[in-house]
């Protein structure tokens, strides 16, 4: 064993310095590596930041503190939830300590069962359904539960491809066979439109044994088609509508676009625009083709046995607010909203998403703007809105930025948005080409969706995934429309789309933290 005992002091010092230098170089490389990992994770959808801290204290409550910090000086809200920092809540919610005091459970001194049943009955009558179930796990809970309760395993269901990823989860859990129907992508916007009658007819002819149809109406950006046309085409088959972003269009004078007019079952994300607390929703159904007990059983399958009574109370309170005040505000404020949209449309350098045709409209309360003609991507425009005007939009991607407006919102908020749009347009630097966020066609299904989901998996790079079978749902988020579902063959178009989305700063759910993609493991 070598020994340094015989070396002189200078040699020992020299060796010590070399060791320290090597240690610090190693530490520097390690830290750089961690930062590199941080950047790659952020680029490849990992939302959890790598926090380089040497000590943690149990006196910290980081999420609670961050929410408290933001709520102390919030930005102007053009995002969900629709109650807009409490503006659309009934006065009782603002009483000190009220929310904590009603955070109760199924105790004997509380007539929770009778009160809940009556609350759901009132909601059913108001939203014109035969039966209503309150949801405390969002519209996703209702969609997944509906699929599990409405169909039997193995049954074939037609699904508009612009569905939310929760529909895919429901297909997997219920063991159904989805037949996807392509939805047109709007030119220059790169977002899905509604399901066309032509495409639906073609799928019906090829799949006469289907049991039902699932349609998203309106879409995330508010694009909606008349619901009766779906009923006319499918006849007595089951029609389920994902109305997570709707329920209010009739109050704005847009008759024919509400789910209750034709659907057997529809699910509302009540918190999105109607104004209840985040993570709440309602499932409505008609009893003509569906058995309420079966739907309840399907919902129970994926529901918590300890629902939040704060959230349940929020739904009940929201229904009362809408029935007595809110629905009328949608009608009353519609002229002001129309004026705002017209003023924005008159600016040079910005385009606003408007009605597609006489049959396909855009929810006026969703203002989707493109600043590509001014040289700004949607994310760049959103950054300006936030940084310079303290405006928080609902959503932004490469092509556009979407703002959600509620009729109980302050007029000063709308004027702030108008001023901000004018300033951005005045900074015009040139034109940017739009980015297409979805391939032109649906990938071929190589394995049944449930089989692929539960099959052995392996993670590979995006380039290595070409020609392999997807084992997870891959979806740009928002809006959560699937780019790939389990069992589909991954092609060059899908990989290029993912790469474009990531390079443009987008969020893609379903990728591994290191940016790899999970595929079905091949034999051998």
Question: Topology, pairings included?
Answer:
Blueprint: H1 9-43, H2 62-72, E1 76-78, H3 98-101, H4 112-126, E2 131-135, H5 138-150, E3 156-160, H6 165-174, E4 177-181, H7 197-206, E5 212-216, E6 223-225, H8 228-234, E7 238-242, E8 265-268, E9 281-285, H9 292-301, H10 309-345, E10 351-352, E11 360-362, E12 366-370, H11 378-389, E13 391-393, E14 395-396, E15 401-404, H12 411-426, H13 449-454, E16 457-460, E17 475-476, H14 492-503, E18 508-509, E19 517-520
Parallel strand pairs: 1-13, 3-4, 3-5, 5-7, 7-8
Antiparallel strand pairs: 2-9, 6-11, 8-9, 10-12, 12-15, 14-15, 16-19, 17-18
Structure description:
It is a single chain. With 524 residues, the protein is α/β, with parallel strands linked by helices. The protein is 38% helix and 14% strand. It contains 14 helices and 19 strands. It has helices at 9-43, 62-72, 98-101, 112-126, 138-150, 165-174, 197-206, 228-234, 292-301, 309-345, 378-389, 411-426, 449-454, 492-503; strands spanning 76-78, 131-135, 156-160, 177-181, 212-216, 223-225, 238-242, 265-268, 281-285, 351-352, 360-362, 366-370, 391-393, 395-396, 401-404, 457-460, 475-476, 508-509, 517-520. The protein has a 7-stranded mixed beta sheet with strand order 2-9-8-7-5-3-4, with helices on both faces. Strands 10-12-15-14 form a 4-stranded antiparallel beta sheet. The chain has a two-stranded parallel sheet with strand order 1-13. A hairpin with a 4-residue loop joins strand 14 and strand 15 (401-404). The longest helix is centred in the middle third of the chain and has 37 residues, at 309-345. It starts with 8 loop residues before the first helix and ends with a strand. Mean pLDDT is 89; it is low at 1-50.
